[in-house]
Amino acid sequence: MSDAIRHLTLANGLHLTLRHAPRLKRAAAALRVHAGSHDAPPRWPGLAHFLEHLFFLGTERFPLDDGLMRYVQGLGGQVNASTRERTTDFFFEVPPAALAGGLERLCQMLVEPDFAIERQGREREVIHAEFIAWSRNPEAQQQFALLQSVAANHPLRAFHAGNRYSLPLRDAAFQRALQAFHRCFYQGSRITLSLAGPQPLEALEALARRLGAQFAAGTSAGRPAPPRLLDDPLRSPSTQDLLFAHEHLPAQAEQALELLLDLLSDSRPGGWLAELRQRGWLQDCKAQRLYSHAGQLLWHVRLQLTAQADAAQAQQLLYSWLGFIRQQAGPQLHVTFAQLQQRREQAASALDLARRDSAGQPYQALTRQGLAALDALLADLPQGPAGPWHLPPAEPLLATTPATRHAPLPQGLTLSDALPASRQFATLYLRWQLPSAARVLQVLERALQALRERAERAAVQLDLEASGGYLQLRIGGYPLAVVNAAAEALEQIGTPAREHWQAPAAREPALIPIRALLKALPGALDPAAAQGQPAGELASPWQHARWQGLAIGFDQASRDALGAALQAIPGQPGEPPARRHFAGRHWHQVHAPGSEPALLLFCPLPAPLQACGRLLAHLLQGPVYQRLRVELQLGYAVFSTFRQIAGHGGLLFGVQSPQAGQREVLGHLTTLLQEGVQLAADSRQQLAEQFSEAAMANAEVAHWAWQAHMATQNPQLACMSEAILTVEQHDLDALLQQLLAAEHGWLCLANAPAPDAHWH
After folding, report:
1. Active site residue 456
2. Is residue 59 scored above 80 in pLDDT?
3. pTM for this structure?
């Protein structure tokens, strides 16, 4: 069933986009304010970003502990905001019944923010911590350097992040400017509100009308046109960083660019990327839009080429390919793009749909106006002499009819009924125990690179990762697409081409410390130690490999097709390994880029205590954020949650701080655990309701089933829900004492040595 969409404008000028999608399990709101960092007074860089932060500190009606963030997180939802050059976005996703409560809090905090100076002081320190992290992030600094290629007086070249020195809180002029910015832009005619969910359009409209009417009417006077994007012909900063700038493009140029970038990222034979890969030049390619406003467009292609590549020739090949694309008929280019957009819409979450709607870029084919914008965009691009180009054939990952070849499912693969086939979302997990998984991973990542690129375009999740002595493959998405991707992936995994053993690995962007720790956590939990294996043919390690697998969400027809695809699984079926049991305190130092202290604390729990542990994590989430992020201002990366990792379930705490070391962070966490929690009247019910297939995202259900399989358990979601409802205050108190004594183990990952001898 296709989505039903409604557009309307309220009396105060606020624009509404409403989407009824019966397949969705959750509902989402995305509110876009058509003003951003470039609209703030140049005298106070960061003012728009600072204001975005202030909104989340609570209001008289909804104080911090009942504000939007705490409300959404308590329901297991998502919430965030983002300030861009000309827009500011606020968005959240919750169970459908909670949409009204979330939207009421969102609208109220934007209409009546609290500008108390002491609150501003605390939040400015958070902004300053973000600025420090931004200034130390190589990828962020590379992008900032790219923007220095535009005209000298264009705001893209300026500093807009904000810090302690650009936000003079005690300056009366600054305070007037802050409130004037709010009055000018946070009013109806400057706002687009999008709602998406399974609710009928009439219900969504009634809710949006009632709460959207709070915004003042204001005026919709246009802003002055930005200065020219370029003073001189654009020069790319390097041969592997290719910049493209445009002026005076027609409406829907962003949508046209999306199609062009989609064509550019297609690595199948016939295109530019395939030619680079065939020559042995290509390691990686990323293309993205950097800026768009008022007919101006700036986009970027970043290449990673091998040492033997000719960068100038690679650029000329791109220009030749652009010339070929220009010669193709717009409708011809449009056919595959329309299919991709349909598949992406089908796979999108409520939050994805609402955010795309609020940006005016829904997952849809180009209109006639969009095709005209594509012609204008292509005409404005450099072109070279003709090359050996052709459009690729139909994409197998978009097929809707299964192949006729069928076979029984292999022994060792378990079928899970956790996700009904009617959801049209399936996931396949395969996990091998084999020597030197990390070495094999490097080879197989190169072998799977082209397939992964195609899968990403077709809304298929394809991940390959290694931890300890294990290699894990996950493929999720439309069931038939998963089957076809699995068949191709297993062929590459079993017999990768010889050149993949020799090719240098692509340079991965440096992770901030806390993300590096999260990436290392599964390996620290893994009971198998990686063993050395000399480089050579892959057949030898596969001879001794043992695998286990789980298939979720497949109907009978797709199971038959999956059986044929899985005949190529290398190795032999095996049993899940025994899980590691923790006791005491264990410290793992992880060498991560960046100088800021970062710490993860994982407290695994045995299965009988996990319902109590989930409720404890639910009750701790708010206090941890309040103490560490708001009161102590330790940093911008602060979280606490319950997480299932490598078959282990437990409480996970994480902090990255510009100024607090690991010992100090651990001290604050220990103090919070010692202070305990109080079981609120509705906490159990609120958490229990999150554990049903109908309430969880499809990918979350699949993850639950896989983690239970690795833990050699078969719990039903309903059992977890029932167990949570039986937890009492004394159970929470007892578990807290066990945690403080590290009876079930503390596993700490940090980018520093252990602080004392109490850690193993």
Report:
1. no
2. yes
3. 0.89
